[in-house]
Amino acid sequence: MVADRPPFEDLYRDFLGRIYAYVRAQVSTAADAEDITAQVFMNAYQAYARFEARNTTPAAWLFRIARNATLDHFRAHGRRERLRRTIEHQPQAEEDPASAAEDRIQYRALLTHVALLPERQRDAISLRHSGLSFEEVGVLMDCSEDAAKMLYHRALKALKESVRKEEA
Amino acid sequence: MSDRDEELEIQALQRELDDAFATTRPRTGFEDELWLRMQSRRPLGSRIREAFAGLVQGVREVPAVPLASVAAVLVVVIGVGIFAFSGIGRGPKATSSEGAGLSLNAGSGGNPTSAVGSFGHLPSPVRAGPGSPQASSGALNPSAPLPAGADYAGPVTLTWAGQLNITISSAPVFRYSEPTTDTADQFASSLGAALERRPAGFLGLYTASDYTLTVRGTIESPPQAPAYFLLTSPSMADIAAAGAQPADIAALFLTEHRLAPQWPYTSAVDGSADQVKVYFQRQFDAPGYGLAYLVDGTGNRLGLEVDLNGSHPVRAIGPLPVSIESAPYPIISADQAVQIAVKPSAAANPVAPAATVQLTSAELVYTLVAAGDHSFYEPAYLFSGSFQVNGVTYEKRVLVPAVAP
Q1: Has the ipTM of the complex gone over 0.90?
Q2: Does the predicted TM-score (pTM) go above 0.80?
Q3: Of B109, B130, B117, B127, which Cα lies nearest the Cα of B73?
Q4: Which of chain B's residues have a Cβ under 8 Å away from the Cβ of A12?
Q5: Torsional class of B329: left (φ above 0), alpha (ψ -120 to 50), beta (otherwise)
């Protein structure tokens, strides 16, 4: 029912930042995050007429689109190569001042650790800290709420170890 | 490590992740640009129908950026406020009573807006965590480096042992409108540089015979003013000034390229041998007080930076000239500022013993508060004091917004 559906502009205002942060935690440059975020909302805008609030929450619906768009991005660009460049801090072929500025974003280093986690752990942390409930995380990741909780806590421990190793 | 310690570390990590995700946001202007792109892709027929049906008000042409920005400010302040404990040693994450480095004490209530002057309610400054990547270096936000040991992460208890003789009851707040591509183009043109392209996140990239110039707008988090970045090419001539000191060479370079600061400043030099950075530390005039430095979220002075290799200018980074207007706002008294500076945070960590830090000096400063279409330079009290832990000297800074609530 249309009445169940908030205006798209409300979704846009409420979720743009969260979707961007979710995507940014997974890709290595701000420019890629912007491109993917733009694609997410373009797709969502076109599909919003078909969105049915009784089947899912707007958050879960948008994050599903974001998750698919991010996976598409990795398929197209090769996640391994991009991560390797991130890990080794290799310079880009051309210095990108936008990227340099964005590197100053608070907690960038922590999000880099998140990006290096195995895919499902990375997703569990990113979705959870983007404000989704464990139930929503489970639906998005095709598992139960309890499984999502377990996956999330395993991911936290892995993240903690990753941070600790670097500091050591 | 005990289970209790491990649990505390996990909780700290969760808080850190909350803050990381809450403070990671797209650049200023992205929200508008994307919304307009989406609107432009809607079928023409539906746009016309809506226009005739009077539905335009229901379709937001441009997102309410100022409101969104204030919301972002709130998120960050709240996010910082909950940062009470971190057992994984990623640098100080503390509010007023936990960590050394800089804290921003907003007083009670966490009200995001301040007194009403002719600019209306003002958004409050947002603290950038010391030790965070964007606060520790001056590459794109020129500032003097943090003092050694400023990233002490342990809890501290603050006391005041100095003299603060600031008697003014109001101070100007400065406001500028977010620069556009036209602003950047005019600036570049005035220097003799021609537009080459507009990279994502920037207003423009321009070239001249012996340098490239990039211009960007305000960055909201951490707040950074609109800026230009001038990178010289090897063909850039050395500055011919026999026997001149680096500060003089930098000033000559700026003058030759029509970049000399049009605002009050003091200069400082960092580096040795041939690699030198010259800082032109910006000041604002506060009638009755004098000149107050512009500082970032860590209390470091901001302004314009010129990097020199001997007498060869390598790059210059400075604030994009923008039109600034001012309006007086009432400010809190020095006594009130002291009380706020030393007030323990509600989020204080009761687990670890706190080092006692005497704040011994204070001054009026200005900080940038980015707020979408318009941003503000607002007065603040900057307190500082040094202390020792295990034989290492640290410096603690506390920034207290001065505009009266």
Answers
A1: no
A2: no
A3: B127
A4: 35, 38, 63
A5: beta
